[in-house]
Design a protein that fits this description.
- By secondary structure, the protein is of the alpha/beta class.
- It folds into 2 domains: 2-49 and 307-397, Alpha-Beta Complex (Aspartate Aminotransferase, domain 1), CATH 3.90.1150.10; 60-303, Aspartate Aminotransferase, domain 2.
- The protein is 37% helix and 14% strand.
Length: 398
């Protein structure tokens, strides 16, 4: 026991803790709604099982195989599919062998590989810039890897949008060699993405010695091909950068597939595997990856992967005066213009509600969201949207 006395206990997770507080034993309110955890839900409030995932699992059960060591980089067919999905099958980077892809577990796992690739032993004074705000795990992950973590301006609370000029200024002021973590689409937690013209400004400022790690949830904003445009624009202008790709949301299978791709100016001689991959595992999981192949399953996934951004019927329903007229009268006076929610994309929305209002939603109405005001739009449906709207209207009236 003495061995563990000096081990600090981790604080409760601000988001996952909502799951356990919202379970029936803890909260018996039959109208409770969990808007905290970022998972896609169907119109009935259930986590869907995609057809491609079901078919892949049925095949693995029907034709069981021994689970031996895979290549350290992961299932080769999986890595190839990820490269073509992210960079495009006709990408010059792929044609010239300038992309390495390593299979990882969950989106955080891929980002961790990227952080360890440039940890303190690889860079003399490692520094990383993340957005303000960003997902809490980003700061903890890079701090543990030995980085000094700083933030660039992103969300403007006054205008309820992206502070593009402030963001560009902070990126340009960063020292050469600084790691910059960008959200290529579906910014977490705000839901605000950059416009194409603004992305070009970011790319112009990034070509001067900054290594970029775009966090990529392809298929969850406008569509699979449309969401790939940002990474492909980087590929045209930026010599070397990393892409952390997560499929946990788009496969509706949290903690499943992800990958880290390293794009380089020139093809590397010798073994391409980054040491960060080799010295942290002997082999990746055998349960990730088969969902991406064969091509017929990928087509099935593409048809199943309805972007959460396409649930604009939900966003428009929130923005409709038919949902809660009192909400919008209070909202327009105290928070922001109501169209803001249809300007956002992806699973999340910054509601503009204060910490105190979010706490009242939980304690008085059993509507669970984080203290920052972030809500998961993908958890809203026709069955709960009116109740959530009325609850928000109630806390805004006071």
């Amino acid at each position: 026991m003495v061995l563990f006395l000096g081990v600090a206990q981790a604080p409760p997770d601000a988001i996952l803790g909502l799951v356990y507080r919202a379970v029936p034993k803890a909260d018996t309110n039959p109208r409770k709604v969990n808007l905290g955890v970022g998972v896609y839900q169907d119109a009935n409030g259930k986590l869907p099982l995609l057809r491609c995932v079901e078919a892949a699992e049925q095949r693995m059960v029907a034709t069981p195989t021994a689970k031996g060591y895979q290549a350290i980089d992961g299932l080769p067919t999986y890595d190839t599919e990820v490269k073509e999905l992210v960079f495009g099958a006709g990408s010059p980077l792929l044609a010239t062998g300038r992309v390495i892809t390593a299979q990882a577990l969950g989106g955080t796992g891929a980002l961790k590989l990227g952080a360890d690739l440039f940890c303190a032993r690889s860079l003399p004074d490692p520094k990383v810039l993340i957005s303000n705000p960003s997902w809490e795990n980003h700061q903890a992950l890079f701090t543990r890897a030995g980085f000094t973590v700083e933030k660039y301006r992103y969300y403007d609370a006054q205008t309820k949008g992206v502070d593009v000029d402030g963001m560009i200024a902070d990126l340009r002021a960063a020292a050469p060699g600084t790691i910059v973590v960008l959200h290529a689409c579906c910014h977490n937690p705000t839901g605000y993405d950059l416009a194409p013209a603004d992305w070009q400004r970011v790319i112009d400022g990034a070509v001067d010695g900054h290594l970029i790690i775009p966090r990529h949830r392809q298929g969850f904003a406008q569509g699979i091909e449309e969401d790939g445009a940002v990474v492909r624009a980087f590929a045209e202008r930026v010599g070397s950068f990393l892409v952390s790709t997560s499929f946990s949301k788009s496969f509706s299978a949290t903690g499943s597939g992800s990958a880290l791709s390293v794009a380089r100016r020139a093809r590397r001689r010798g073994g391409p595997r980054p040491v960060a991959t080799q010295d942290r595992r002997s082999a990746p999981t055998t349960r990730t990856g088969p969902w991406m192949v064969p091509p017929s399953w990928r087509r099935c996934w593409a048809s199943d992967c309805v972007p959460s951004g396409s649930r604009n019927s939900v966003r428009c329903g929130i923005a409709s005066s038919r949902c809660a007229p009192h909400w919008w009268r209070a909202w327009s006076l105290r928070v922001c213009r109501r169209e803001y929610i249809t300007d956002q994309v992806g699973m999340f929305s910054f509601s503009g509600l204060t910490k105190e209002q979010m706490q009242r939603l939980r304690s008085e109405y059993a509507v669970y969201g984080t203290d920052t005001g972030r809500i998961c739009v993908a958890a809203l449906n026709e069955g709960n949207i009116a109740y959530v709207s009325e609850s928000i209207a109630a806390v805004l009236k006071d």
